[in-house]
Amino acid sequence: MTSPLNPEKQPALDTPDSDELPWTPPEDPGPIDDPDPGPEPTPDPTPDPSEVPDPETIAWEPQTWYSATVVCRTSGCPNENRVVDVPLVYSNNGVASYVQVVDGTCGKRSQFLTATKLDPQPEEE
Questions:
Q1: Residue 45, SS3?
Q2: Each residue of 91-109: pLDDT tens digit?
Q3: Is the pTM here over 0.85, yes or no?
Q4: End-to-end Cα, the chain, rounded Å
């Protein structure tokens, strides 16, 4: 009877004759060519800042929901000058410095371009 804990009771392993060479792996065939790699991805170009509309003056009403468009103006951010629609923005107390959308890439505040008060307002939960 053999036991994995007692090597003395293990059967002897076959060892190669001294004439045999040690096993060597086959040569690496290299990368496999894909017959249809598909189109090359093209990077999304950074929009021209002149194409971004000027921001509106927004009069925020307290405790009100809006839909808005925002743009990140942070230099070097991949989302720089990209206009984004935000379907729900809450105005908090109506003071502009408390109403904000943060860009998810650079973590900086985005600039509001437009804001439209939702009518009807969403139901409170």
A1: coil
A2: 999 999 999 999 999 999 9
A3: no
A4: 70
